[in-house]
Amino acid sequence: MKWKTWAKLGILAGTTAAAVPLIQKKCKEPDGKKFLYDTANSAVTGLCTAIDAVLPAGKKGDILDFQPELLLPGTENFITDAAPNARWELGFDKASLLPDDVTAEPYYIGGYLAFPPNVAQGVLDDQMIRAVALSDGSGRGIAVFAVIDCVGISNHDVNDIRNRLIDDCRENHIVSINISATHSHSCIDTMGVWGELTTALKVNPRKVKREETDFVSGRNEAFMENLKTTACRVILNAVRSRKPGVLSHCTQDGSRFVRDKRPPEVMMTEIHSFLFTPDDGSRATRAVIMAAHPTQFGGNNKIVSADYPYYLCEEIEKSGENALFFQGAQLAIATERSGNVPDGLSRTESIQEYGRAVGKFCLEATMQPVEPILNITGKKILIKITNKIFNLLAKIQVINNDILAGDDSGSLLIVSEIGYAQVGKNLNIAMLPGEVAPELIRGGCLDAADSYDGTSWRFAPLEETVGGPLIVIGLCNDEIGYIIPDNDYGSIVAPLHYEESVSTGKHTASKLIKEFTALLNNLPPKAN
């Protein structure tokens, strides 16, 4: 590091040392622990700020050049009734993303910070992309919903896939492509955060200054290129294989399968199943939406696995159906294996049995037909990065999200995206980036007395704004980390506040609520 960096770090260390007596005194006061947490948080923030201050700025987009239009904006109008004689049409495809040299090359496992980082040493199951192409027979276009077994995918990479398909979209009247992540913490890193971070901190600033592009991160670029190529192929195969048929839906109470690790312990326990049955009697396709972290292998895992979603889909496939799994609003929602799998199994066996148990549960659903109505739209949004850890990762190009220079000194803005769809007359779907707190959707945010900063949450839950139940597809078209109610955004070292360390910042939730509300208030015009 340059001498300026060491000077700043020295000042920070001296200030911290001088503050020790004050910290000790404050910790004896009634709210002493919070003071300690905030002080420690300030030290971490100060360290990141000191390093950030001497790093080269690099090239970023300018906020004045921001183009708010989506590449694929969705249906140009919304309908309230099915078109005459309309039939649903759906196509499906899937493919493996696993490289042949998975144990020969250093592929990092994405999901847990480890020093040294976790490098793949074997494969338990598959890492896949699955996609459906859906149209409602109205002639207003095709929407694609794809999902990748991975911890997350950036909006930059999603747009790269869309751009590669743009001519095919015009030719086939594809109006929307949405790509989400299952959020498995045991797949090959697609975000870049889980590689050699110390090396990246040392090497990448020089590369930024020299305007080089081969940054050190946990992403293997050959793997990512194959992912994008495969995604394009799978999406087009799904579009071209569409058949007419019946789409049906069921909501099941899946509360026995999940638990919440963070107050206020609000969960979206519903498991949603969408089942498409082709008119010609060929293989049906079932999509499952459920909110629970696929993190069951733990922080030391070095084996590639898609976690429980793989075995959930496998169980459905055994019944003769195609299967997809979409992640929901799962901020701190964990799986509950107790009572759902037999005792005495190994960790791996219990993970597999958990997924199969959920799959069997979904196959028991009593489905109800859905009228052929598909309305879909979206919106680009800008989110200010106030979390200094996230800011540092963006500045040294560990993550490849699209970043703009902010309107004040040193601030960065991340370009992200939200989406909204209506399926049938009564099913509303929010497509949201990152890992959303369920209380933002359902209500029940902590009040002033219990929240971290002692203030109240002042926004209505999105279900109230929509006017009914809302299905959430999380980590959709972007991964921006945890989305936490502003009033409970606290110190990263405080108990039950780990999520703040992997978040864009304190005001992300309120920004998301405002932008989604604006999207709902400015929907495309109705055609009937």
Core attributes:
528 residues; globular; alpha/beta; nine-stranded mixed beta sheet; six-stranded mixed beta sheet
Count of β-strands: 23
Distance between the termini: 64 Å
Beta fraction: 15-25%
Radius of gyration: 23 Å
Question: Helical percent range?
Answer: 25-40%
Which class best fits the helix and strand makeup? alpha/beta
Residue stretches low in confidence (pLDDT < 50, at least 5 long) are 1-30
- How many distinct helices? 12
Report the mean per-residue pLDDT as an integer: 91
Principal-axis shape: globular
Largest sheet: 9 strands, mixed
Description:
This protein has 528 residues and is α/β, with parallel strands linked by helices. The protein has a domain at 1-54. The chain is 30% helix and 23% strand. It contains twelve helices and 23 strands. Strand 5 (128-135) and strand 6 (142-148) form a beta hairpin. Helix 7 (308-318) crosses helix 8. The longest helix is centred in the first third of the chain and has 24 residues, at 3-26.
Q: What's a quick, concise take on this entry?
A:
This protein is an alpha/beta fold and 528 residues long. It has twelve helices and 23 strands.
SSE blueprint:
Elements: H1 3-26, H2 32-53, E1 61-62, E2 88-96, E3 109-110, E4 122-123, E5 128-135, E6 142-148, H3 155-164, H4 166-172, E7 174-181, E8 187-188, H5 197-209, H6 221-240, E9 243-253, E10 258-260, E11 270-278, E12 285-290, E13 303-304, H7 308-318, E14 322-327, E15 333-335, H8 347-363, E16 368-369, E17 374-385, H9 388-395, E18 403-405, E19 412-423, E20 427-431, E21 435-436, H10 438-442, H11 462-466, E22 470-473, E23 482-483, H12 508-521
Parallel strand pairs: 1-18, 4-13, 6-7, 12-14, 20-22, 21-23
Antiparallel strand pairs: 2-5, 2-9, 3-8, 5-6, 9-11, 9-16, 10-15, 11-12, 17-19, 18-19, 19-20
